[in-house]
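Hey team,

Filing this mostly as a record. A colleague (T.K.) asked me to run one chain through the structure pipeline before their review meeting, and I want the input and output archived in the tracker in case anyone asks later how it was produced. No errors, nothing strange. Just documentation.

Input sequence:
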Amino acid sequence: MTGRIIAGPEDLHEGATWLAAREARFARAYALTGPLPLRWRRDGFGALIDAIVSQQISVAAAESILNRMKAAGLTGPRKIARASDEELRACGLSGQKVRYLRALAAARLPYARLREMPLDEVIATLTEVPGIGPWTAQIYAMFSLGRADVFAPGDLALQEAARLLFELPERPSPRAFADMALAWSPWRAVAARLLWAYYRIEKDREGIR
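Output structure:
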């Protein structure tokens, strides 16, 4: 079973209201952020390109690389497979990410079936592809598949937002953060959106594309 799907703003409001009723800090954050962005992305190959490119770089840097790739027509698996390393590197991709995108192009992932898989199977299927780790798979499940109860505890912006909002002495480790987020089920993806929105206010910059 896929569980609850976030399909529109009303789902985000329902989840945020649920979180705010159970955690006073989320209530305070939601009062500051207002309505949360849906951040919906079409699923499939393009969404995973987006996620891989965005790994460990700023939002602005990722947008710049993705815009260069689109301008060069390097958006589909065949074109990426046929492009030279030099053409891909010219878009701003590192050598490692060139290898990751080539692996994705060769993977032939079952995109349609991913929509119906349980979350643990989605994560397991995606992370079989070199370059797709838990963070990338979680972001895909959250924004491209609309899963309501997925979280990304390894995300640095989420960790920093939680440190600030919950007045923690330091950023939580991914393991501790995952344990912490259990209390936010079944709306962990809404908690993530709320924390990213709070991060934007506190840091005056985006934490996720």
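Quick notes for T.K.: The mean pLDDT is 95. The domain at 45-143 is CATH 1.10.340.30 (Endonuclease III; domain 1).
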